[in-house]
TrEMBL record:
GO terms for biological process: aromatic amino acid family catabolic process to alcohol via Ehrlich pathway. Pfam families: TPP_enzyme_C (PF02775), TPP_enzyme_M (PF00205), TPP_enzyme_N (PF02776). Gene3D superfamilies: 3.40.50.970, TPP-binding domain. It comes from the Bacteria. Binds 1 Mg(2+) per subunit. This is Alpha-keto-acid decarboxylase.
Length: 548
């Protein structure tokens, strides 16, 4: 018998999902049976629902859609922080919540995983601000509601929510009769906007394009690359959006961070007579606490939810076709100068000296190769990588807007599952890792092969830089990090662990990791407590002022 549960799984397969993450619970077990029986889908069980949400987020950033399954109440609430991060940063995740039988809900029975008041809608209501669309599925509405919600996922690239009662998942239905659309066409307002952009570039003497993370959410990197190469326009990116443009492109001038930018980049962007912001959100950490020096009177900003035309907001626009249409614009290619780049990398020659943040990131810059997937935790790792010029065909994952520490470890694993052929390299601090380390068991069980650098600097260095340098609340327990893969059940054929304290020890571990793509490499990097990248030191000063 073909059921509503089968219908939902076939629709997930249609949008490119081949793995589903989550945690079993008695309200979703029968639905999980359907996943296990579906030849197009694989189940990836997680240690907890928060990590499942993080892993789904990483998968979706690489595969462009993901799904997780939780149980009602306790499971979905555990996942909410991860769903909120996906919403904030435009990551398309389908959250499927297995809930009690419809008859139980209708009778308002006091069952487990509820608040004991007979009300079953509390948790759905909590998700309203964190999802682009949601539905409580019934036997009557399920196919139409599933299609509506998944189309919203494709149109917005934000999370969606489906409440799936046990009996509804088992109810018969017909197979899908058509394809999901999720596509939109240019509006008349879009056409007018394209003409305005074309005119602005034709008149500008000093134009700049700034790219952001929303472009990656819609898989628009290649379209944007063609537009930049055709027009030769100077292009920059925020750290929130790093990797959207190939940073070896001639006209890529560097990462813009307001007052924290390289001076030549800051001056070039701030003095532009026309800026086109595409998928950009000017958040505090990405702009040096709002220290950008350009004004909206010179800016057209195109976002998923709205367009700002020199400060005037309009909303009847369709982001994806609008961005793709930029390639059709006709104006003379840019023929001016670009600021000098500080991207020349001398070969890293290691010494026997203890590692410092500065030397560690010089070594990492030399270690990265074209085609890598680089993931940086929102701590010293992110702020160490942000100013670097990435190699060609490099992808990048961070979470600088939502900034939930611990996110990147599960996200790395999800992204690796989505693209097993790409070498994934994670840099994460000890404090962040302690929040989500449980998924190391999943990495070893799935025989995933990332290279993971664990920065052991004895606590919360970012917070120490901002406030409370010697306070106990910025301390964490000291773990024996190099022993963790063993503790989580790893064998020597699936992982290799190092603990490095000097430059030479780091390079030895790096070289072996590069030469051995068939094992997970776990490299503990010992650094001092207050050492941090220069970028972070400056940002911490600005955040201290912002928070006081």
């Amino acid at each position: 018998m073909y059921t509503i549960g089968d219908y939902l799984l076939d629709r997930l397969s249609e949008i490119g999902i081949t793995e589903i993450f989550g945690v079993p619970g008695d309200y979703n077990l029968q639905f999980l049976d359907k996943i296990m029986a579906n030849k197009n889908l694989n189940w990836v069980g997680n240690a907890n629902e928060l990590n499942a949400a993080y892993m789904a987020d990483g998968y979706a950033r690489t595969r462009k859609a993901a799904a997780l399954v939780t149980t009602f109440g306790v499971g979905e609430l555990s996942a909410m922080n991860g769903i909120a991060g996906s919403f904030a940063e435009n990551v398309p995740v389908v959250e499927i919540v297995g809930s009690p039988q419809s008859s139980v809900q209708d009778a308002r029975k006091l069952v487990h995983h509820t608040l004991g008041d007979g009300e079953f809608s509390h948790f759905e209501k909590m998700h309203q601000s964190l999802t682009a669309a949601m539905a409580h599925l019934t036997k009557e509405n399920a196919p139409a509601e599933i299609d509506r919600v998944l189309n919203a996922l494709l149109e917005t690239r934000k999370p969606v929510y489906l409440n799936l009662p046990i009996d509804v998942a088992e109810s018969p239905t017909s197979k899908p009769s058509g394809k999901l659309s999720g596509s939109t066409e240019l509006t008349s307002e879009d056409q007018n906007l394209l003409q305005e952009i074309e005119s602005a570039f034709s008149k500008a003497k000093h134009p700049v394009v700034m790219t952001g993370h929303e472009l990656a959410s819609f898989g628009l990197e290649k379209s944007m690359q063609r537009f930049i190469e055709k027009t030769k326009l100077p292009v920059t990116t925020l750290s929130l959006g790093k990797g959207v443009i190939d940073e070896t492109t001639e006209s890529f001038i560097g990462t813009y961070s307001g007052a924290l930018s390289e001076p030549s980049v800051q001056t070039f962007v701030d003095q532009a007579d026309f800026l086109l912001l595409l998928g950009v959100k000017l958040s505090d950490s990405a702009t040096g606490t709002f220290s950008q020096g350009f004004s909206e009177e010179n800016v057209i900003a195109v976002n998923v939810d709205e367009v700002s035309l020199y400060g005037k907001i309009s909303q009847n626009h369709h982001f994806e076709p609008l961005i793709k249409s930029l390639e059709t614009l006709e104006f003379a290619p840019y023929s001016g100068d670009y600021p000098a780049k500080n991207d020349d990398l001398a070969s890293f020659i290691p010494s026997a000296a203890p590692l410092t943040q500065k030397r560690y990131w010089q070594a990492m810059d030399a270690f990265f190769e074209p085609g890598d997937m680089i993931i940086a935790e929102q701590g010293t790792s992110f702020f160490g990588i942000a100013p670097l010029f990435l190699k060609t065909n490099t992808s990048f994952i961070g979470q600088p807007l939502w900034g939930s520490i611990g996110f990147t470890f599960p996200a790395t694993l999800g992204s690796q599952i989505a693209n097993p052929d790409s070498r994934h390299i994670l840099a994460i601090g000890d404090g962040s890792l302690q929040l989500t380390i449980q998924e190391l068991g999943v990495a070893l069980r799935q025989k995933l092969k990332p290279i993971i650098f664990v920065l052991n600097n004895d606590g919360y260095t970012v917070e120490r830089q901002i406030h409370g340098e010697e306070q106990a609340y910025n301390d964490i327990p000291m773990w024996r990090y190099e022993q963790l893969p063993n503790a989580f059940g790893g064998d020597s054929d699936v992982f290799k662990a190092y603990k490095v304290q000097t430059e030479k020890e780091l390079v030895v571990a790096m070289k072996e990791a590069r030469l051995d793509p068939d094992r997970l490499y776990w490299i503990e990097v010992v650094l001092t407590k207050m050492d941090s990248p220069e970028y972070l030191q400056k940002l911490a000063e600005l955040l201290t002022k912002q928070n006081s």
